[in-house]
Structures are given as structure tokens and as C-alpha cells.
Amino acid sequence: MPVMWADGRCAGLDSPPFNTLEISVRRSEKSMKTPKGFLWGGASAANQFEGAYLEDGKGLSVADCFTAGSRTHRREYTDGVVEGNYYPSHIATDFYHHWKEDVKLFAEMGYKAFRTSIAWSRIYPHGDDEQPNEAGLRFYDELFDELLSYGIEPVITLTHYEVPYALVEKYNSFADRRCVDFFERYCRTVFTRYKGKVKLWMTFNEINTMMHGGEQQTGVRIPEGADRDQVLLQVAHHLLLASAKAVKLGHEIDPENKIGCMVCNPLFYPETCKPEDQIQAMKDNDAMFYFSDTQVRGGYSNKARKLWEARGVQLKTEPEDEQILREGCVDYVGFSYYMSAVSSTRPVEKVQGNMMRMVKNPYVQESDWGWGIDPVGLRIALNQFYDRYQIPVFCVENGFGAEDEVSPDGHVHDPYRIDYFRRNIQELLKAIHEDGVDVMGYTAWGCIDFISAGSGEMKKRYGMIYVDRDNEGRGTLRRIKKDSFDWYRRAIASNGEDLG
Questions:
Q1: What confidence tens digit (pLDDT) does each residue in 276-301 have?
Q2: What is the separation of C-alpha 106 from the centre of its chain, rounded to a whole number of angstroms?
Q3: pTM for this structure?
Q4: So what's the architecture of 37-493 in CATH?
Q5: Best label site of 103, 174, 289, 360, fewest CB within 10 Å?
Q6: Domain edges within the chain
Q7: Residue whose C-alpha is closest to residue 296's, from 373, 392, 370
Q8: Active-site annotation holder among 153, 162, 206, 427
Q9: Is residue 206 annotated as a catalytic residue, yes or no?
Q10: Where does it sit, as one GO cellular component term (predicted)?
């Protein structure tokens, strides 16, 4: 067998069997655009931009109990709303009172899809109420109708870090199995109410971030002296049951529904080719795939069971649980991608990333918040998910947080964001055209400025529309199109061909 050199030449042969550079050039000369029906759009979350936190019957959510933070100071999760603290979600960027204006701007950008979430506590203020709040249901009726009038497909997350806080107070959230039933009741209500309006759903946002906490995901509190792993993996089991029940129910209520999971991208690179680093990266990836494996395949893998064993966890289950998981397999995999991670077996200081701490990667640039900028990682992530599951994948979050400023001419110039999106979309197109990945769509995070989930800041801006509001809650809430707004409008209009 001939030896292959690093540059593609084969020892002992006059010419290489292929030339990877030539193939790459030939492909780049071809027109690469997204397939017909591809869902271009933007993404958001109710708790990060709606505001109106107790308006029209809405109840307190877990997100409403997180104070503002900064890039160096973590947000505090308080026991309810404590006087003297600033809670940015209470007003956020006030989409609740600006939604018509904002949807019109989304339509001007050419959106085919808009991803947001329903605030569970806007529908069931306490989570366990017997009857839903009609005012909350009516708000989303009007929002979905407006989107559809512009030809924009609603893509709805059932809960995006928005568990009603009353469930924390009464049951410690999903630590109690009864919350599975409360979630199922909520799902039945919204699936029935919005039948024919919403056909694309996701269950729990970034469900796999449970492995790194659980407070922001569900509001669960770890009792003093309790085994952290036991509590969190039991909560995770209840979330997976709730997700599976929602999928089955959604299919029964409307067979046209497509319901996906939503996971935080679990792409870990080994730090070196040292075999132990390879094993560590495999373990780190497996821990994050724990949730999507269960949601796609309909049951726990052998590796999941070995994880319980290694952590000394014994799940409390019921005889019907295996059937519930088996009958609730998702239709597609939705995921967020901002950055890749690095796994290492050597003692090394870790930096903060998206919902987790990780080893710094010296081969990629970083944002002002220290997040690695790795567009190629998006292509790898798309391939990983598709190769693993062989069902459609949907990049529902991908974006760049930066400090934007309004220039003296009244415009917001953000070439750094345009560069980020251009490079990521180029890699997404390669995944489609060169690798054969079945990608449903791309919803950029975020369509409009809103508060950062991780830091609670406004100055860490993701949107293509600027909102006049600062970290202390001051500002007019005026909307201003950024340069990236027009760039994305052209990208969508050309179906991904014009990324210049």
C-alpha cells in the first residue's frame, strides 16, 4: 500500500490519485446556494426580548429572577424578585409592545422563518394552573398571524429557560416528576391553540446544558448536602420524559407538526494527538450527546448508563418510562453553534464559553468576550449531527456578540458581525454541497438586540437591528438597522449566493 504524504502525494507514484486543492477550487467556482425551501431567518427567546414580565396575567419565570451581570461577574439567581436588584428581563427590549414594528423589519430582511419561544408563564402563570391565561394565548395568536401574513414560518421553542418560578417554589421545578405533567398540559394547550399556524417546534432549549448546572435551564436548586450529579441527572430524566411526551402529543394533535430537540453544540477538539486527549474529547462529546442520543433514538445508550455508573447515580424511574422515550423520538435536531471547545488531560486554566468552561484554542480568533471564532467548526458540527443521526439538522442559533456603537451619522457599522456571518454561512454551504448534509435552515442569533442570557448585558449585542437600551436599562428603545441588516437581506434574497 503506498504511503500518503501530507500534501496529498503518494510515495512511489508519479502522480497523486487526487488533488484536494484542485477539487476545492473546482467546487468553489460552482454556484453554491441553499436548497429550495431552506429556512433563512433569525432567532430569539421570549425572556431575552419580550419584557412585560408581569403584564396581562403573566407569571414570574425563572429568567425573571436572574440579575444583570457582566463579562467578569456572573448573574445571580435570587429567591424570587429581590428589591434593589436590576433584572434585565423585566423590560428587556420590549418586544411585547414593539412586535409589529419588529416583525415588519424581519420581513424587510426577507425572513422565511422566525424562531422564538413561548413564555410558559404567560400561558400558565404558576405552571400548575388548571386553566390557561387567555391574554397570553391571544398575544401569540396575534404574533403568529402577523408572521404568517408576511410569509414567515414561526419556529417555536416550547420553553427557552422560562420555567414558571412558582414551580420552583412549590416543587423545586423538574426535580419533581409532577412537573412533567404540568409541561404536558401546557403543550396540549399550545399545540391545540396554534394548530395550523405553527408546524415547526422544539421542546427544551439547549437541554444538554443541564450537564453544567441546571439553574438557568430549569431553575432547580440543589439542596444542601445533596449529591449534585444525582439531582441533575434525575432532573434531566424528567426533562427527557417531558420532551418525549410533547413530541408524541404534538404529532397526535397535528400530524403535520415537525418537532425537534434543541441542543448546545457539543463540538470538542482534543488538544493534541496524545491518545489520552482523544479519549477526553470523546468523553466530553459523549456527555453532551447524552440528550440528543436519547431524544433521537428513543432511549438511553450504553454510554449513558455507564455515565450513571461512573457518577454513582441511580435514576428513579417508572415502568412506563422506556415506552415514553421510545414513542417520543424527535423529527430533527436543532442546535446552537457559537464556538468550538478544546479537551485536555493536562492541568490547565479554563475560560468561560457558552454555558460552560473550556480550554482556550490558540488556533482561532476570539471575540471581546473570549469566545473562539471558529466557522469551520460549524461545518464539522453539522456533519457530526447528521452522520450520527441521519435526520435533518437545523442551525437555530449562530451569532456574534459585540459592543456596537451608533456613529455620528446615525448608523451602526458592524463589519465584524458581517465577517462572522459570512464565514459561518460559507461553511454551512460547504456542509450542504460538499458533504451532503441535510440542513433545514439557518436562523441567525439574533435578529434584533436583546439581553445576553449568559451575562445579562445589553452591550453584548447580537442583533442586526440595534435597540437603544443600555446595561442599566436606560434608553429610548428606538430601533436602528445595522449594516449587517442590509448584508443579510442580500444574502437571503440571493439564497446564499451573494455573501459579499
A1: 999 999 999 998 899 999 999 999 99
A2: 19
A3: 0.92
A4: Alpha-Beta Barrel (3.20)
A5: 360
A6: 37-493
A7: 392
A8: 206
A9: yes
A10: cytosol
